[in-house]
Amino acid sequence: MSEDPFAIRRRGLMFVLSSPSGAGKTTIAREILARDDNIAMSVSATTRPRRPGERNGVDYEFIGLTEFNMMVNRREFLEYAKVFDNYYGTPAAPVTRALDAGRDVLFDIDWQGTQQLAERARDDLVSVFILPPSMAELEHRLETRAQDSAEVVAARMAKAADEMTHYAEYDYIVINRDIEVSVASALSILNAERLRRERQIGLGEFVKGLREGR
After folding, report:
1. CB 22 within 8 Å of CB 138
2. Are residues 99 and 105 in contact, defined by beta-carbon separation less than 8 angstroms?
3. Please, are residues 104 and 95 in contact by the beta-carbon 8 Å criterion?
4. Domains defined for the chain, CATH in brackets
5. What is the pLDDT of residues 128-179, one digit of tens each?
């Protein structure tokens, strides 16, 4: 079957979720991936140690500081940042391939990384900031996930207040009172952004064909 010359294609988009640690962005990201087949997780490179259960090349690309710095020097990252004494970065090549193929890419990154993405590819970017319902609830979530020491939890709480001041830089805000509602909200944002006129490649020719009776 020959390709329809009036078919509408869509360029992929970069769907960013950011939040203070513990506010729920990682859980929301996992649910989006489980429920939507046309979006894939951007796998960041990081210098931090691997946590129990994490898989190299799936959760992160775990690399040394020397290799990370070499990638920075070769300008191979869309964005990178230092967070809690460790470095994180998004390799550009796989993201570009996905967008060109019409697939969306999901990012679980902080405000620093989002700013860099906006500088390099604002037209492809859709950003969502996840807020906790209260600071008490945020602290409770950090303590109950039992991944960090009391000192690390205290540091994350101190940093959260600063991170939340960047909410106004984002396209959308979701207050994560209920995880199911928050996931539904994020998916609604994603689906609406896919329908934006400027993302529809070939739309003008399609409408021209309709007017000509094709």
Report:
1. yes
2. yes
3. no
4. 9-42+104-211 (3.40.50.300)
5. 999 988 888 887 777 677 666 777 777 778 788 889 999 999 999 999 999 9
Instruction: Work out the mean pLDDT of the chain and round it to a whole number.
Output: 90
Q: Whose structure tokens read 């830089």?
A: 169
| Sheet strands side by side (includes 45-46) | 61-62, 45-46, 86-91, 77-83
Q: Are 176 and 132 in contact (CB under 8 A)?
A: yes
Reduce the DSSP state of residue 68 to 3 states and report it: helix
Residue 5: predicted pLDDT? 56
b/e code 69-95 from CB counts within 10 Å (16+ = b): eebeeeeebbbbbeeeeebbbbbbeeb
Residue written as token pair 């021209």: 208
pTM: 0.83
Q: Which whole number is the average pLDDT over 80-109?
A: 92
- Surface-to-core class of residue 103, CB atoms within 10 Å of its CB (0-12 exposed, 13-18 middle, 19+ buried): middle
Return the beta strands (E) in the chain as ranges: 9-10, 14-18, 39-41, 45-46, 61-62, 77-83, 86-91, 104-108, 125-131, 172-175, 200-201
For 21, the 3-state DSSP assignment is coil
